[in-house]
Structures are given as C-alpha cells and as structure tokens.
Amino acid sequence: xxxxxxxxxxxxxxxxxxxxxxxxxxxxxxxxxxxxxxxxxxxxxxxxxxxxxxxxxxxxxxxxxxxxxxxxxxxxxxxxxxxxxxxxxx
Length: 90
Fold this sequence. Notes:
mainly alpha
C-alpha cells in the first residue's frame, strides 16, 4: 500500500483508524475518544477537530505521520474502489 501524501477530506475518522491502526494513539493523545464512537463513521478529521476543540493543522500533521509509519496498514479505502466485494461488477 502506498503511503498517504495527504488526508482525504471526505475520509471518516473511523476509516482512518481502521486502515491505519497507529492513528488510534494520536486520537487518544489529543483526548478524542472516537474509538468505538457511533459518530466516528460520519465525522471527518475536520469535524472531529471542531467537536473536540483540537487544532486541525497540527492534528492532521501528527495523524499523517502516524499513517505513514503504520506498517499494519492494509485495508483499501472505501473511496478508491479498491475494496470492492467479490462479485461486485460496478
């Protein structure tokens, strides 16, 4: 999997945590209890930063660093079409 260059603004924090497990530490470090939160499937990074009063630029930089260093990352993005289910011919 390629290392991310930026954070997709449409990607939810839930997808980010699932694809790059190392980002969970960043969330916790910033007091964002998005892990297991039912809103995480809807919140983007900007939404979560706004809800938790966290600086989005500093947080995004730290999140991106964790994403780039995460060797456990293996799940394709729901936005890229890479992760289609078997038999899905779209």
